């Protein structure tokens, strides 16, 4: 698949759902991809990318940012508090706010730095023990807590369990967002972004369908 193919599929899925194509942002997930592949997508004019590790992002994006203007970098993987400052300096959005300690750290750093990336709260919709994210039953309270800290919460993010029908998880995430007045929905990956768009995704995170299979497994 090429970037154009994916963009066309996004536009079609949006249209089928009665939505504007530009109500869906494509985050090209470049984790562990060779730089040549990332550069090829930059050359085609795409500017919105996702990485799941701060260290890896810090290794390649400052250089790309020098060479290509207006890069919009999203952190989509788990964030340790000791990497929060670096993530806030480098990224325009963080999709993995998943616990009070991290929220407090981001709030303190936002005060100190005078700016904060757009934030998404990750919800562990499948209640999987090994997966990051706030549990669905705790989401309303956690959203309120983040708002009380003045954090710019734009929406919610989820990664459905691999074995389950993702649409159920997308619908659950959309319900939690709606009842909390949040518009952003970061959901949908290579295998299911069209279903996510049908259920309201505003940000789809697509990696292998654009860049090809990842060469090595990313750390979770
Ligand atoms: C790797 C990753 C993706 C992209 O996965 P693909 O199946 O390659 O599209 C999306 N979201 C997160 C959080 C990821 O870590």
Task: Describe the 3D structure.
The chain is of the alpha/beta class. It is 43% helix and 16% strand. The chain contains nine helices and eight strands. It has an eight-stranded parallel sheet with strand order 7-6-5-4-3-2-1-8. The radius of gyration is 16 Å and the shape is globular. The chain starts with a helix and ends in a 9-residue tail after the last helix. The mean pLDDT is 96. The protein binds pyridoxal-5'-phosphate.
Number of helical segments? 9
In the CATH hierarchy, what is the superfamily? Alanine racemase
CATH-defined fold name? TIM Barrel
Molecular shape: globular
In brief, what are we looking at here?
The chain is α/β, with parallel strands linked by helices and 220 residues long. It has helices spanning 3-16, 35-43, 54-67, 84-90, 100-113, 136-148, 166-179, 193-198, 208-211; strands at residues 25-29, 48-51, 72-75, 93-97, 118-122, 153-157, 184-186, 203-206.
Feature tags:
single chain, 220 residues, alpha/beta, TIM Barrel, eight-stranded parallel sheet, 9 helices, 8 strands, 16% strand, binds pyridoxal-5'-phosphate
